[in-house]
Design a protein that fits this description.
Low-confidence stretches: 1-15
Order of helices and strands: EEEEEEEEEEEHEEEHHEHHEEHEHEEEH
Shape: elongated
Distance between the termini: 21 Å
Strand order of the largest sheet: 12-13-15-14-16-19-17-18
Helix content: 10-25%
Number of helices: 8
Number of strands: 21
Mean pLDDT: 90
Radius of gyration: 22 Å
Length: 442
């Protein structure tokens, strides 16, 4: 298999980072009432109040440009000023019909799907369903006012006086996952087991789900294991929607799900970086580590969730009763469309051929999966990622992949433009069930 690209495992593109050494924001704004320039006296109705002091929130500073225009500054990841992409904040105290212009001015990545028409999402108290802003009203450009740096500008009309939320993409919080897993656990499904695999630095749960027919989990029974992880990068919320969809399908009464549970043991860690997710980081953990560079030698105190997960994978790999067939780490991609995969290349031709089967099956059966974006490489710079490290350290029969899904949407040769992904349904999930059957039951 020829190598295609070596530029990205949803890792930052070379030369695309903008590091702001003067950015000293360390916390989110908390009920910040922003007064217009040259205003004196108490705040009035129509003086907007910004807040991001909630779970997964991110907004570090607000600077008024005029009565109607505001510069918004993303808070960098905790302990790491390099990453500023994810934002999630609320606005209140507006007048009905009030018009504003928001400029998000300090993105750390200049290459973005905003160039392709992606827009932030918005919801309000009376309209709790997230919706994308109209692309015709959003602008991503180099600003002369900001020394040629890229900014994202969008106008907005508050048609109702109520609480509004804005976010980079559809949020999926740690608490949402816990609520979903609590519901699943309360159903006492005989083929679902929820375990506390470990805890994060801030003592948040690292959950492990095991989904299979109970007979497969008996002692001394030979197991075929497929292992999924997600949200090692906390701002990549589409990864959680994919993982949620996989879980939802595997625990369902669909005939294919029943068949898969009969033969396969699925193990899933839905959020690998619970602290980063909770804090509203884009890429890093509480301590500022990009955890998807730490798989080679994860520290039990600095990277406890990785250390625990890798220990489990190693234990499964060395067990005589386990065939660890697949490891799939789910991510979201900020510059490419569609769903696609990153795999590894090997010197042995048989392993190269075996590695290509899963992506080819997906491309044949999943409308939004792109074989053109799929890449196989073994770049040294990616050696600390899960799919590179585990491919080297686990047995030769374990296939390790990164599964990517676009933050924005998907395209086909026959589609007219981009078809945006939504939070409610994922085309990839709906069709992947057939590929799961075809591949995992081979």
């Amino acid at each position: 298999m020829a190598e295609k690209r070596s530029d990205s495992d949803n890792e930052t593109e070379t030369g695309e980072d903008v590091i702001d050494d003067h950015d000293t924001m360390v916390g989110n704004v908390t009920n910040l009432q922003v007064l217009p320039p040259y205003h004196y006296g108490p705040a009035e109705k129509g003086h907007l109040c910004f807040d991001a002091a909630f779970e997964s929130g991110n907004l570090g500073r607000v600077s008024p440009v005029s009565d109607e225009e505001f510069d918004l500054f993303i808070r960098p990841d905790t302990c790491n000023a390099r990453y500023r992409v994810w934002f999630y904040f609320s606005v209140s105290n507006m007048l009905k019909g009030q018009r504003v212009i928001f400029n998000i001015v300090n993105f750390s990545k200049t290459k973005s799907l905003f160039r392709e028409g992606m827009t932030p999402v918005v919801k309000s108290a009376s309209r709790p369903k997230w919706q994308r802003l109209p692309s015709k009203q959003c602008f991503y450009y180099r600003s002369p006012r900001k020394q040629g740096e890229y900014i994202f500008t969008f106008p907005f009309v508050f048609d109702v006086d109520e609480l509004y939320y804005f976010a980079y993409c559809f949020p999926y919080t740690y608490t949402e996952l816990q609520a979903y897993l609590d519901v699943l656990e309360s159903q006492n499904l005989p083929y679902l087991r929820r375990e506390l695999l470990g805890v994060s630095v801030q003592q948040r749960r690292l959950d492990l789900l095991t989904i299979s027919h109970p007979a497969n989990l008996a002692d001394h029974v030979q197991q075929r294991v497929v292992f999924f992880t997600a949200r090692v990068h906390p701002g990549e919320t589409p990864a959680s929607f994919i993982c949620h969809g996989v879980i939802q399908f595997l625990v369902s009464q669909h005939s294919l799900a029943i068949l898969l549970r009969k033969y396969i043991v699925f193990k899933i860690v839905p959020i690998l970086n619970p602290d980063g997710v909770y804090l509203g980081n884009y890429r890093c953990s509480l301590m500022g580590y990009d955890l998807n560079r730490q798989w080679t030698d994860p520290s039990p105190w600095a990277h406890p969730t990785l250390h625990t997960t890798k220990s489990l994978l190693t234990s499964l790999d060395t067990s005589q009763n386990v065939d660890l067939d697949f490891y799939v780490d789910i991510h979201a991609h900020s510059t490419l469309m569609n769903a696609f995969m990153f795999g590894n290349t090997f010197d042995e031709g048989s392993r190269v051929e075996q590695q290509s089967v899963f992506p080819k099956l997906l491309s044949m059966n999943v409308e939004d999966f792109s074989m053109g974006n799929t890449c196989f490489n073994r770049d040294q710079i990616k050696s600390g990622t899960s799919r590179r490290c585990l491919a080297q350290e686990l047995g030769a029969n374990t296939l390790c992949y990164t599964l990517e899904v676009s933050f924005f949407g998907w395209m086909t040769n026959s589609s007219n433009g981009v078809i945006p992904y939504t939070a409610e349904a994922c085309i990839f999930y709906k069709n992947t069930q057939y590929c799961l059957k075809k591949l995992f039951l081979i």
